[in-house]
Design a protein that fits this description.
13-stranded antiparallel β-sheet, mainly beta, 3 helices, globular, two-stranded parallel sheet
Length: 211
């Protein structure tokens, strides 16, 4: 008898809790999700965990991934931290670049908004970050081919003055500013250049005419 009462109490509590979630905008009713092809943008951390970069002067830098985040599911009930009925699927990774006695950070994030088929992206390297077009600095994904050392890399995001900037809050805090970097869908970060013209290129064991 006591066990039955406990069951009824817990079921009642669960029902009330679910109602409270709905009434407080904590359950998603509109959702989207990332496809397998979309998620290819963040698989580089698993395939190429510790890439190296070399400058023309022989300086060496190493990339290390620090955090990977994937929020992607067709489950229609999620607890929301922003009090919204809309679930926007997203994925991202963060990384550090260790160069001499300097360490600076970078990231790539992709998201798919509800009722939209196209991907949006946000990216940054050493605080050189994507323009704020939508929320959280997301801009429409645009890919290009990128040639480096006579090798063509497909499906690349090229960050430069046309789509990225230093915010007024960071511009005076960063000493070695970036003015261009390239992120590949397959490999992750491929290339970055400082405003003084110093370039760092990804080191590959084998080169191909097209990848």
């Amino acid at each position: 008898m006591i066990s039955y009462k406990r069951t009824v109490i817990w079921r009642t509590f669960g029902f009330i809790f679910l109602i409270c979630l709905v009434l407080s905008n904590c359950v998603y009713f509109r959702m989207t999700h990332l496809s397998k092809d979309d998620l290819e943008w963040i698989q580089c951390y698993n395939r190429f965990p510790s890439p190296m970069f070399i400058s023309e002067s022989g300086k060496v830098a190493k990339l290390s991934y620090q955090k990977v985040w994937i929020a992607n599911s067709t489950n229609r009930f999620y607890i929301s931290s922003n009090g919204s009925y809309t679930y926007e699927a997203n994925a991202s990774y963060k990384f550090d670049i260790s160069q001499s006695d300097t360490v600076f950070q970078g990231r790539l994030s992709i998201t798919k908004f509800v009722n939209e088929n196209n991907l949006w992206v946000a990216f940054s390297l050493n605080h050189f970050t994507s323009d704020e077009i939508k929320q959280f600095n997301y801009i429409p994904l645009q890919t290009h081919n990128f040639e480096m050392d006579s090798v063509i890399y497909n499906d690349c995001i090229i960050a430069d003055s046309t789509n990225a900037y230093y915010s007024p809050y960071q511009i005076d805090k960063v000493t070695d500013k970036i003015d261009k970097f390239v992120i590949s869908k397959k490999y992750g970060l491929l290339y970055y250049r400082f405003q003084n013209g110093e370039e760092f290129k990804r080191k590959f064991k084998r080169k191909k005419k097209e990848v």
